[in-house]
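Re: weekly structure request thread

Next one in the queue (404 aa):
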Amino acid sequence: MSDPTTPTGPLKGLRVFDLTRVLAGPTCTQMLGDLGADVIKIERPGAGDDTRGFAPPRMPGTEESAYFVGVNRNKRSVTLDIAQPEGQKLARELIAQCDILVENFKVGALAKYGLGYEQLHAAFPRLIYCSITGFGQTGPYAPRPGYDSLIQAMGGVMSLTGEPDGLPQKVGVPVADLFAGLYGCIGILAALRHRDATGEGQQIDIGMLDTHVAWLANQGMNYLATGQNPPRLGNQHPNIVPYQVFPTADGHIVLSIGNDPTFKRFCEAFELNHLLEDPRFATNAARVENRQLVTDTLTPVMQAHPTAWWVERLEALKIGCGPINKLSEVFADPQVVARGAVREMQHSAGVPVKVIANPVRLSATPASYRIAAPLLGEHTDAVLAERLGLDAAAIAALRGKGVV
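Done, posted below.
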């Protein structure tokens, strides 16, 4: 019988030296681990990743924070003090056997430990070295620390989010961290392709502000096209109307009418043909110009029936719509359940823990769920023995000196 903890997937055989903590970096390395890479997570002895302490809540039956468990599966935890010369030596010996290093230290911080990109590239030219920071490796802000809400503010998304007359709002999940981690993973996969062709490693420089600006998408382009700052529109779309939240008889619904034929179908189905004869409603461009009129006209129509009534009829007409679900409703949704969005993994505390599944569905080499988020230093002895050939006495000596 095969070992269920043995890596499987398209990245099987790749080794990752993970010097990341909190969210952006761990998001990147968890994706690599899910796809089969052997990820060694380096943590500070006695302390570990900051997010181990981001509790409550803790996962039931464990001492681990839900935050940490959610972004550190498929990793082996090794405690190592890279501030000590012996720790630096061990780190370099482990890195010598790795394909990828991912780090999210402040710019230049690892160089003082002999673990900067230029230092390691000279010794290990095939190594792919991914740096994730708030503002990238260059530019006037490079030395600054980066935090999700700070990046959401500086990157513009907060100016676009919220009600027109209300305060700017951040997104309810840490999207700046998440996007930086995912862009980092994309960069690593591209660098692996390049290394396969040339034998050369390289550095991937991910700045959270860069990635945040990159996903301003249509709103960023709207600004570049006009030179005008887009206004906050609450739950409305800047380029399509009606594409927004409407109140219903018992709650709210998102109505997404993406083009003129769909608007025509909507009007014909719900006895609103007279709107099609009104030039203010006839085209999407006209509806955008008359946004408030469209909203005021359709609001009493939508309020006449409950959400379920609208969902049933709009879905039958192939018109985009959906309820605004609380998380309890999200995880109970038949589509979410059918797609297996929640997985259960056995934790080393002796209990199963639920995690949100990897959304990348590969037909031949699917993501795997091998190791639940590890206890601090859980795999130190095994990795040092397996990778470096250290025996129990040698490891005990290192532990006595606080190196591991």
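The CA atoms of residues 58 and 297 lie 47 Å apart. The chain has two domains: 15-215+336-400, 243-325.
Next request, please.
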